[in-house]
Structure formats: structure tokens, C-alpha cells
Amino acid sequence: MTSFNTLFNRMFQEKSRTVYLIYLIQAFASLCFSVWMIISMKGDPNVMVINGHHEVTNHLISYLLIFGVMMFITSFFANFVYWIISSIKNEKINRSQTWRLIPISDTKFLLSNFGTAFISYLWLMILEGITVAVTCLPVLTVNEVRKNLADFFSRSQQLGTQDWWGLLGALVLVILLGYAWYAIVSLINLSSRSIMEFLPNGSSKFIMFIVRVVIILAIIWLLSKATTVVFGAIGNFIPFLADGNNDLQMSGTLVAFLLFDVVVTLIDILLLNKFVEAKQN
């Protein structure tokens, strides 16, 4: 049997190629936007206005800052593109005969597939964050920027324990939502494909397309109803979540999403193991 770590590392290497490609395209696009912006400013972007104060910097700092801002702005589009591409890649791996022949359980296979997609997304965000931080670092030579940063850090020290727990809960919620995205996409794809297997082989492509669209819409409707039921059940079993305590409400939300992810994953495993056949690459 192949170990989970071995499969995880191999899948991460495969998906990190997409990350590097998206990052390079994003950096090139940001560079083009930066050049266009500098030209539109007539090559004199060295005057910064911060809190009403005019700060004069050298051109290199201004150029790097513009590139960092462009990287930050384009990151939203790049991240969206990654979610779409990674979802498609996940489904190709799920149906790939080469990957499915790896001696490992379906549970570990799916967890590795979903997990590497999300970790690769975090790696893309890290690359973007490092690029923005490095290109914007020289702007710390501006006095007004240093004052604003000092004020920000002094305020952050005033955050209480409840605030930090809220931030941690938000981080966990983002992770659960990211996992839920991949699990739901797989559920829609695997369930629609498993149902399509029962249709006659001679059916036209148009009919197959219509049937698949109807199946996908039906699954999305069922998922929305299931989500309502899960959250309602959590509220009934833990009635004190509605007492206004934000920590308890956050805990209830996390538990609900965790249960939702587990249920959807179990259905994915069942479909992958029993109803969906792998195809040759």
C-alpha cells in the first residue's frame, strides 16, 4: 500500500505546477499594468499623498510600490482562476486510471486530492504575499508610512482573547469552506456521471448535455436543502448558540460546516468506489 504522505507529496508536486504558471502570468500582467500606469503618470510617480501629507520618494520605490499594488489587485482574479482550474484538475485525477491504480484507500485518495488542492492554493497566496511584501518593503523609508504602521501595531496589541479566538475561528471556517468547495464540485461531477452511466449509449450529445444540466441543478438544489437541515439540526441540539455569545455561535457554525464536509466526503467516497469507473489517460 502507498502511504498517504507519498501520495500527498506527489499530488502536491503535480498541482504546484499550476500554481507557478498562474503566478508567472499574474506577475507578467502586473508588470504590464505597472508600466502602463507609470506611463499614464508621465513617468513622475515619486510623490505620495498619505493622510494629507505629500511625501517625496525616489522613483525606484514608487515603481516597486506600484508593482506591489498591481500584484495585490490581480491576486483576486488569479485566485479565482486557480479555484476553477484546480477543481477541473481534481476531477480529472478522480477519474484517471493512472491515479486510481495507486494502491491506497478511496478515503485517503480523496482527502489527498482535496487537501493538496487547498494547500496549493495557500502556496499561491504565500507567493503573492511575499512578492507584495518585498516590493512594498522599501516604502518603509517614508516617515508617514512608518507612523501609520506603528499606530496599527499599537492598536492590534489592544485586541482581547475573544478577538483572537474570533480570528482563529474565521481561519478555520475558511479552511472548511475551501474543502467544501472541492467536495461539492466532486459530488456534482461524480453523481452526474454515475447517473449518466445508466443512459443508453446511443443517446445524442445534446440529450446527454440536457440530462446532465438537469442532474447538476437537482443536486445543487438538494445540497441547499441539506445545508438548511444541517444548520437547523445544529441549532436544535445546541439551543444555547442563540444566546448572543459570538464564540458559541462561531463554534456552532464550525461544527455545522464540519459535519457537512464529512457527509459530502462520505458520499463522494461511495460514488467513487461503487459507481464511477476510471478512464484511461
Automatic annotation (TrEMBL):
Keyword annotations from UniProtKB, A to Z: Membrane, Transmembrane, Transmembrane helix
Q: Which residue ranges does UniProt annotate as crossing the membrane?
A: 20-40, 60-85, 118-140, 164-188, 209-234, 254-272
In terms of superkingdom, the source organism counts as Bacteria
Identify the species of origin. Answer: Lactobacillus helveticus CIRM-BIA 104
Q: What is this protein called?
A: Uncharacterized protein
